[in-house]
Design a protein that fits this description.
Layout (H helix, E strand, L loop, with lengths): L8 H27 L4 H47 L3 H9 L13 E8 L2 E4 L16 E12 L13 E10 L2
Antiparallel strand pairs: 1-2, 1-3, 3-4
Helix pairs in contact: 2-3
Length: 178
């Protein structure tokens, strides 16, 4: 007979057998889980989906920024084209720049008119019209109009180093009017 607080060998053996069966069952379930392939694609997609969405959003955002830069450049070119066709009028050139696109574009700094000498493919600007001084190469100086355009772009995703928020997009166009 076994007294209080004492256990017999049969009960210890029974407890060990139950523990062994429980351990085998747990390891069996783990092994079965390791061999299972159901839902693996869903888990992989769940892990990769946030990265894919971030890549798509960043591509969209940079595409929108590039599109806005093109619109700013077109606005500056519209101001230069106005000056080419109608002569220099700072107010009307500014209006041509701001109304050239649906984007909120500013003509800053204001359009300027300067004398310039063409040397090869570069223009050396000097002074304001009337252009009375002859260029160093004997050519008559021309009157050039410089048009600037700027717009602010706020990225969809706040990038740490690539784009500050908001980013100023700017462009410049220069045209000889005389």
């Amino acid at each position: 007979m076994v007294g209080p607080g004492e256990t017999d060998c049969a009960s210890i053996t029974a407890q060990r057998n139950r523990a062994d069966r429980l351990m085998r069952r747990c390891f069996g379930l783990l092994a079965a889980f390791g061999r299972a392939r159901d839902g693996v694609a869903a888990v992989e997609f769940g892990l990769l989906a946030p990265m894919l969405l971030l890549i798509v959003a960043a591509s969209l955002d940079l595409g929108l920024a590039y599109s806005a830069q093109i619109k700013v450049q077109q606005a500056a070119q519209a101001g230069a084209q106005y000056a080419l066709l109608h002569g220099f009028d700072s107010t009307k050139i500014t209006t041509a720049v701001t109304s050239a696109t649906s984007l909120s574009v500013n003509a800053t700094p204001a359009p300027t008119q300067q004398c310039g000498c063409l040397t090869g493919s570069t223009v050396t600007l000097s002074g304001t019209p009337p252009c009375l001084v002859t260029c160093g190469n004997g050519v008559t100086p021309g009157t050039y109009v410089q048009v600037n355009a700027q717009a602010s772009y706020t990225p969809l995703i706040p990038y740490a180093t690539l784009l500050s928020s908001p980013t100023t997009l700017s462009s410049q166009a220069q045209v000889r009017i005389q």
